[in-house]
Amino acid sequence: MVGLIVWLVVGGVVGWLASMVMRTDGQQGVILNVVVGIIGSVIASFLFGGGINQVITITTFVYSLIGAIILLAIVNLVRRGSVR
Known about the structure:
Elements: H1 2-21, H2 30-48, H3 58-80
């Protein structure tokens, strides 16, 4: 249970930071930030290897942030036709 809570909190922080980088923070709420962070960590696990249930370190945090930024860039590209 604690692992799930930590995963949601870290996912929220990662999603929030990615939305700040991509300038979409005003369009996203807390729930969407968590979803973006979690999906970003899944994307990062495919790109950089490793499993989804890894211990949270600085490296996995940065990888998850990169994955979330990639996700938001793809969403921006599909919705607007350009990456911000």
